[in-house]
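pipeline/complex-builder :: batch 7 item 3
reading input block
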Amino acid sequence: AAGVIQSPRHLIKEKRETATLKCYPISRHDTVYWYQQGPGQDPQFLISFYEKMQSDKGSIPDRFSAQQFSDYHSELNMSSLELGDSALYFCASSLTGEETQYFGPGTRLLVL
Amino acid sequence: QKEVEQNSGPLSVPEGAIASLNCTYSDRVSQSFFWYRQYSGKSPELIMSIYSNGDKEDGRFTAQLNKASQYVSLLIRDSQPSDSATYLCAVRGSNYQLIWGAGTKLIIKP
């Protein structure tokens, strides 16, 4: 079965630009999580969605927004990009009632 | 203080030996614990999950949980060079998000 798909895999942006990251969960998975991992750091939870509704919010800046669509894919929109936003962004999906989160390959964002 | 604490390492272990990775957590009500392996630049990969006190074995890996001491560990037997990676301990939060430790870098020396 196909795993979690993220696109794009790599993205280079200038400061103050915007970026959109996409996540396609595993088939039938209804919950999506977004994590940000800076260089040499542990992942930080940003936001999660269950059945197209935001279920929890972590350390997500106000410049970022996200949503989950009717087909359960999710998009993370990032505006007014800063140098410090350069990181790996992981999406994970899970099925309601199951503990395990399955991670996508990540999107590496570089802000210049 | 981080909610999940790990020694950042690096932990160097000879090939064929047992690697022991440790993790402590601060929230006493935590119920679900996970060990992920992460190669540089790659996404975390689930190694083990554990929910009950005691040991859980899966192949060369054994997870140990002690809720009274708020301690979870991962043992890797017969360590291989391919086990060299960063091992992340994670605890499930109240809304199912994962709360991560800083990770322990493990180096298996041939």
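note: The mean pLDDT of chain B is 94.
queue -> next item
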